[in-house]
Amino acid sequence: MAYLGLFFAGMFLCNALPHLLKGLQGESFYTPWAQPRGVGKSSALENVLWGCANLLVATFLIDRIFLKNVPHGMVALAAGFILGAVALASIFSKRNVA
Hints:
By secondary structure, the chain is mainly alpha-helical. It has helices spanning about 1-25, 45-65, 75-95.
């Protein structure tokens, strides 16, 4: 169960990055509540808040699980991050085709 938690922590950590980067640059970006859903973009502030929420969830999961000294836990964390990165790249590359 700890490996699954670390896997999802990696996914949340990965998802935090694009939202924080776009938001900190003052640019709009996709969020789950944008209108129209799945196509529209949200403001920079909304993206910073969404990125911070993802970062908090990832930090909470990592903190709670790493306190248990899970062997090879970084592998699960990295796997979640990599899978999240590949999924996000695939999704956003389809949306950004002009």
